[in-house]
Amino acid sequence: MAKLADWGGQGKGKMEFRAGAVLAVVTAILVMGIGAAPAQAEPKEGTGANPAPAEKGPGRAVEKALKKKVFKAPPAAGGCGWNIRPKKSGATFGPGETIYYIVTVKDIPVGKAVIKIESSKDVGGKKVQHTVARGKTNSFFSKVHKVKAHMEEDADAETLLPLGLQEDVAELETERQSTYRFDHAKGKVNVKSKFQGRNIDNTLPASKTVHDFLSAMYYVRTLPLKTGDPICIDVVHFRFIWRVQGKVIGRERVQTPAGYFNTIVLDGTAVRTDDKSRKRRVSFWLTDDAYRIPVKAASTLPMGETAVYASFVKKTGRPGEGIEEPVEDEEQGE
Hints:
The chain is mainly β. It has one domain (4-300). The protein has helices spanning 21-27, 60-66, 139-142, 213-221; strands at residues 98-105, 108-123, 126-137, 147-156, 162-171, 174-183, 188-195, 198-205, 230-237, 240-256, 259-272, 275-287, 294-301, 304-314, 320-322.
C-alpha cells in the first residue's frame, strides 16, 4: 500500500493556516491547484476504478499545462455570461452522496473533511438541495493551529444556483459566523458576518449566476467537460468575489486513499475581482463517469502545497468505497 506522501506534492514556505482552509480547500475551486499525480503503487482491492498502474511523476495532461502559461487573469468586472446549467446533462448526484477527504500540507496530514447531500425537498414550489460540509484539523495539527469549520447550504436543485449559505469557522480563539443570501435576479449577494466581536453587513454586486463554494462544486460536475472546454464561474467568499477561469486539459488516472480512478482534469486561475494581484492557480480531478466525483484537489498556498484526497466515496444509491472516518464534533473525540 502506498504511503500518504505518494498522493501529495512538495511545497515550500512558512507553515501557516487560515480560517476555514480545511473546508475551503475541499469545496472551492478557488483553492484547488496543480498537484503531483500519484506515484506508482498497488491498488486497493475492490475500490475505485479497475486496478492499473498509475503514472509516475506528473500526469501528461498536467505536465503539459505546467510548461506554459495557459491562462490570463480574467477581467475585474462583469459576469461570465454563459454560466447556465445545460438541460438533462452532467453528473448523477443526489441525497445520500457522501465524500470524505484527507487534507494535507506538504504531504503531512493536517485534517479531514466531509461533504454530504442531506436532502432534496420542495420548498415553496421549488426543489431545494440541502448540503452539509464539515472539516477540522487533526489532533496533531490542532496543537499547532486548531481549525474547525461547518457549512450548510440550500441551492436550487434544478439550476444549482445557491439560495443561502451558513458558514461557521473557528480558528484558535477566533470565531466567524457568516450568512449568505443570494438575489440572482438583482445580481446581489448579502453577507452578514460576526467576526472578532464585530457585526459586518455587506451587499456585494455580483453576476446573476454567482456561486458559493459548495454550489460551484456541484455545478461544474454537470458540465459536458470535454477536453478543451472552457470554464468560467464566479464564486463569493466572505466579502469578495472570485472569478475562476480555465478549461478541461485532459484525462488522467489517479490514486487516492479511496482507490484508483480515471479522472477529468480541470486547470485554471482564480482571481479576486476587486484585486487582480490576488490570484491562485487552480486544478482538480473529477471521476470520468456519470458521477463526476471530485477525488483530488491541490493548491500552493502560503502554508505550502495543500492537497485533498478522497478517502471514502458513497455515490447516490450505491455502497461506499474506501475507509469511512467520521468528522466528529470536538465533544465526541477526534
